[in-house]
Predict the structure.
Amino acid sequence: MSKLKRIPEFKSEAEERTFWESHDSSNYLDWRKAQPASFPNLKPSTKTISLRLPEGLLDSIKIEANKRDMP
């Protein structure tokens, strides 16, 4: 593996997000050293929204959600 690049410092989360959308993380991190992480106390936040979708699309989304055991 070639030498890893230094991760730049970001002024904002938006700037960091833009950076990672256009850069390959394998040039900055050695993923062979990665270890699984567990966050047992994290509780996902949810927010109800209204969304108008064509019925066919909504049906397709429901089918995919059921395949993944998601309500």
